[in-house]
# Entry
Amino acid sequence: MDPAFAIDDRGIRRAILALSRTDFGASNDLPGQMPERGLGEIQALDELAPHVLGGAARLDAPDTLAHMDPPTPWITWALTLWNARLNQNLLHPVTAPFAREAEERVVAWLAPFFGMTGGHMTPGSSVANLTALWAARDAAGVKCVVASEASHLSIRKAARLLGLDFVAVRTDTFERLEEQGLGDLSDACLVLTAGTTAAGAIDPLALAGKAAWTHVDAAWAGPLRLSKMYEDRLAGIEHADSIAVSAHKWLFQPKESALVFFREAKRANDAISFGGSYLAVANIGVLGSHGATAVPLLGTLLAWGREGIVRRIERCMSNAQQLAGAISASARFELFAPPETGVVVFRPTVEATETFASALAPMTASTTMIKDRLWLRCVSANPLVVIEHVLAKMT
# Structure
C-alpha cells in the first residue's frame, strides 16, 4: 500500500501539536518551483508550519475584534480533518450517504428560525446570493434586481451574471435602504440587507414580500434570529422568498460555509435543478461537486445547541455596545450610529482617521467609506476578545 494514503499517527500528532505553538521563529523560503523530488510529509509539515500557522492572523487573540471573521471552535478543526480524510461528494449519494443527511439536518434545524422550508449549503454568501437571484429569475420571472447602494458587491455581480438589470437605491443617514426610492417592483427581485458590510445596518425588512421576489442578504446578521434577545431586529425576514446566511461568520464555521434558504423550497429547487445521465439525483444550485461542509456545522450545533451559539453571539453584541458607549462618551470620537448588529463605526475628531487607525492593534479596525466620508469600522466577531484591552488601547 502507498504509505501516503495510510494513517500516520506520528504525522497527524505532529500536525495537531503544531496548532498550539507560537514559537515558530523565522520561516524558510519556499521553493520558487515545484521540487522534482518531494521532501516527504513530515518535512513538508515542518516547512509549512511557520508559514501557515506562524504567519497567520490570530483571530482569537484577546485584543482582536476580528472584522467579520471569527475564530473557529476546535470541534470544527477535528471534523474538517475527518472531511479531508473521506473526501465526500454530495453530488453522488452513494459516495456521501451521511454527508447528505448532515446537510439536510442542519438546514432542517436552522430554516424554521427564518420562516423558511428548505435550502442548501454553499461555499459562501456570494454563491448563496447568486443562487437566490437565479431562483428569482427562473421561478418568478424577475427582470431586474433592486437593492440599496450599500448592498454587498456580490448582488451586483449576480445580477450581471444572470443578465438582470441592477437598480441601486439610495440609503438614509444610517445606511438603510430608503423606501421612497423603490418604484415599481412587480417584475423585480428586491434585495434587502440584514447587516451591511460597512455599517452593519438592517434595511426595512417590513418590505419583504412587496416585490415579485424578495431576497434578504443576511450573511452577517442572520444568526441573530436564534437569539430571543435580538430576533426582533430581523422581524419581517420570514416574509422573504430567499435568505442567505454565512455560517463562517456568526455561526463560527471554517471557510467556506454558507446557507441559502427558501420559503417555498420545492418551487425554488425546481427552477435551479439540472439532471444528467450520470446523476442519481437532481443537481440543485450552482455547484456541481460539493463537499461535506455541513459536518462541522452539525458538530457545532450538536456540541453547543442553540443556547451555545446565542451565548457567543450575545457576548459579541455586548462587546460592541460597550465599545460604542465608550466612543460616544469621549470627545475624541464621533460615533456613526448605535450598533444594530455588532458593527461599530466611528471616526476620531482630533486627528486624521488614517493616523489613528495605524496606531491600533492589527485586526482591531478597518477603514470604510460611507457617504464619501472615511470612517473606522470595528466588527465584534471574536467572542474571546477581552473588551477592556481594546478599550484601553482605543480610548
About this structure: The chain has a mean pLDDT of 94. The two ends are 61 Å apart (CA to CA). The domain at 303-394 is CATH 3.90.1150.10 (Aspartate Aminotransferase, domain 1).
